[in-house]
Specification:
The protein has nine helices and eight strands. The chain has 232 residues and is α/β, with parallel strands linked by helices. Strands 7-6-5-4-3-2-1-8 form an eight-stranded parallel sheet. The longest helix is centred in the last third of the chain and has 19 residues. Bound molecules: pyridoxal-5'-phosphate.
Amino acid sequence: MTTVSTAVADIRRRIDRAAEAAGRTDQVRLLLAVKTVDAPRIREALATGETLIGHNRAQELRAVEPELTDVAHESHFIGHLQSNKVNQVMAWADCVQSVDSLRLAERLDRAAATRGRDAGVLIQVNTSGEDTKAGVDPAEAEALAEQVAALEHLQLRGFMTIGANTSDETAVRASYTALAQIRDQVAGSGAPGTERATELSMGMSGDLEIAIAAGATMVRVGTGVFGTRPAP
Ligand SMILES: *Cc1c(COP(=O)(O)O)cnc(C)c1O
């Protein structure tokens, strides 16, 4: 049986090889997607020196995070966020990657203000055009990013997408290239608050090489580390 630490090392090797193949010299960060994983196993993964975890559900975040307060880590929210869960999520998450409307961003901004701190956010873009996927339409992403960047208590750090769900590599690559183009446009726009919107959170267990070739600065890996789990 593969242990969590061996699996983390394998994923790290895949990331390094992909970065090297793409001629990248910057860091590609690994975010552990921990949906349905219990606190002891998350702890095992963090014990390898990893520091970034991503939650899909407010309920799980709230259940697991209090058990991890003694382990240094950064917690991101990567799932669909319902407005009535905004406060719960803001109590624990350092960054929300799934911002896809101004309404949600404004709620997060107010929650951050109430807590007396700033929160990191990424704009989630539906680059594949699949109906089942969350995210703002690519044509509206730049305008949304500029509006979000102007909110006082949110720090726009970049963009997130879930690649096209297909074995057609060309379609997957197109999703990731589209996100990189949006990032370049926004980060180069000169609009207030957009200059640090450099993050590209894209690529999962099955396609992280394609994402890294397209410029991913962060890949989100679940199955590759924790094995197959039930769908969220
Ligand atoms: C589950 C999940 C991942 C990780 O996917 P794997 O295929 O298990 O590596 C990445 N991003 C999001 C938003 C997820 O829900």
